[in-house]
Write a structure and sequence with these properties.
mainly alpha
Amino acid sequence: MNNVINFPNSAEFEDLSLAERMIIIESWHEEMEDNLTRIRESAASIAALIEANKKHAK
């Protein structure tokens, strides 16, 4: 899994057409949404494991 979003530097970005910029931004947005979903799922799993551990420790 790659956690790096390849975004052009500002000079390259400024040379792109508006449509190209929008495609890059849309792709970046989708990738960030996917990352946030994975983070939320991981956090929920960790919380569940913590709760299970607390119940087991009693």
